[in-house]
Design goal:
The protein contains 5 helices and no strands. By secondary structure, the chain is an all-alpha fold. The chain has one domain (27-127). Helix 2 packs antiparallel against helix 3 (69-82), helix 3 (69-82) runs antiparallel to helix 4 (87-98) and helix 4 (87-98) packs antiparallel against helix 5. The model has no long low-confidence stretch (mean pLDDT 84).
């Protein structure tokens, strides 16, 4: 009877530890995605400033970077959308399409949406147009 009790206690401990690791993985992925977004935005800003390539080419290059699968997917969607739509509309649609695959909170998604507006408004300043 005591042996059975210890077996159940061990299973409870093992199960709760596994659940904790699964929950914490989502938060770890969130931090990694935010760092990846920051890195890609810095690359985007530098490419706009120094290469003066069109935005769709820059987004294609960012999608090809193998930093994070979800972030690369976001920039791939953005690359497809920007060919047919204005920057702000394409950015918002890319966010809506990829937000379910990202591990970001709603506040983070709102910041990324704001970032698209900043890029659109300040593009002329970064490209010296």
């Amino acid at each position: 009877m005591i042996l059975l009790k210890y077996i159940f206690l061990g299973l409870i401990l093992l199960g709760s530890t596994s659940i904790g690791f699964l929950i914490s993985k989502k938060y770890l992925n969130r931090v990694n995605e935010l760092n990846c977004f920051l890195k890609n935005v810095n690359i985007l800003q530098n490419k706009m400033k120094f290469t003066q390539k069109p935005l769709n080419e820059i987004f294609e290059e960012l999608a090809d970077l193998e930093t994070n699968k979800q972030i690369s997917n976001f920039f791939e969607i953005q690359n497809v959308k920007i060919k047919n739509k204005p920057m702000a509309e394409a950015w918002n649609e890319a966010i809506l399409e990829s937000k379910n695959s990202l591990n970001l909170k709603q506040d983070d998604i709102n910041l990324v949406a704001t970032l698209g507006n900043v890029i659109r408004k300040n593009r002329h300043r970064w490209t010296n147009e």
